[in-house]
């Protein structure tokens, strides 16, 4: 086989590989931006059954910066406003139970995003690192938690879907 033939074969091979490499930007680049929450579900690992975590139309955003910082906040749909400007204890509990937030720094390793929490709605997360699987497809971010125990003791994962805002 001549050198010219080998070069031609390599060139043709690269033509098949390069479009895939360009389309598959690294996750860190794809993740940077502002994302609007469109759904958040909990999925039972043994049965595959799913249920919404924050209702059918949750609210919230996630922001990932180029510098490696993140913040996110989710709220449930149908939240009832307090009767006055200062929520009662009962109202405060209801508002807490229908919201979640976190902020800190992140790093990307393949499809795993390690989130180091500086603050969070669940103080047991603050100062810890939590890993999630994330995938960006077009304008959609799918964020999947590692398995955890639900309040009723079942092994579950949380799957949140977000749409790019900017």
Annotation keywords:
Lipocalin, single chain, 166 residues, 3 helices, alpha+beta, disordered N terminus, 10 strands, 21% helix
SSE inventory with pairings:
Layout: H1 3-23, H2 27-31, E1 33-44, E2 50-52, E3 59-64, E4 69-75, H3 89-97, E5 99-109, E6 112-120, E7 129-137, E8 140-144, E9 148-149, E10 155-164
Antiparallel strand pairs: 1-2, 1-3, 1-10, 3-4, 4-5, 5-6, 6-7, 7-8, 8-10, 9-10
Structural description of this entry:
The chain is an alpha+beta fold and 166 residues long. The protein has one domain: Lipocalin (Beta Barrel), CATH 2.40.128. Helices cover 21% and strands 45% of the residues. It is built from three helices and ten strands. The protein has helices spanning 3-23, 27-31, 89-97, and strands at 33-44, 50-52, 59-64, 69-75, 99-109, 112-120, 129-137, 140-144, 148-149, 155-164. The protein has an eight-stranded antiparallel barrel. The model is unreliable at 3-24 (pLDDT under 50).
């Amino acid at each position: 086989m001549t050198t010219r033939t080998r070069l031609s074969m390599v060139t043709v091979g690269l033509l098949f590989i390069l479009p895939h490499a360009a389309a598959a930007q690294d996750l860190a680049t794809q993740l940077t931006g502002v994302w609007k929450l469109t759904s958040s579900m909990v999925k039972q690992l043994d049965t595959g059954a799913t249920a919404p975590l924050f209702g059918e139309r949750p609210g919230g955003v996630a922001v990932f910066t180029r510098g490696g910082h993140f913040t996110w906040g989710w709220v449930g749909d149908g939240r009832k406003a307090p009767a006055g400007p200062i929520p009662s204890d009962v109202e405060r509990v209801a508002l807490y139970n229908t919201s979640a937030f976190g902020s800190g720094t992140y790093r990307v390793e393949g499809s795993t995003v390690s989130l180091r929490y500086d603050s969070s709605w669940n103080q047991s997360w603050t100062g810890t690192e939590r890993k999630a699987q994330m995938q960006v497809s077009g304008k959609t971010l799918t964020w999947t938690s590692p398995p955890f125990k639900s309040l009723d003791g079942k092994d579950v994962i949380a799957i949140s879907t977000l749409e790019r805002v900017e």
